[in-house]
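Proteins fold reproducibly. Consider a sample protein:
=====
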Amino acid sequence: MRVLDLLQLLSDYNKNTPVRVKVAGALENIESFELQLVDEQRQLWIHAKPAGKPLKVWEVMMLLDKPEWRQAFVHVIEPDDIRPLFGFQDTDLCLALN
C-alpha cells in the first residue's frame, strides 16, 4: 500500500479516531515515520512504541501528507523484520494498521 492509498482510506473515518499499528500481534502506538530508499524503491517505515497516546486520524494524515512521500510504499518495523502494510481494521477502540 502506498502512502497515497492510506491517506485516501483514512479520509473516510472520523478525524478523532485513534490509529495504532499491529506489531508482533500486539497493537502499539505510532512513534515515527522514516523515508528509506530500498532497491530503488521508496519505502515509508512506521516505527512503533508500546507506551504513550495513540495518534488520531487527523494527526496521521497531517504527518503523512508530504508530496515526496505520497508514492512511497508503507512498511511496518517488526522486532526481527520489516513487513509491508496491507490495510487496517476498524476495531471498537481504534483503527489498527496491519
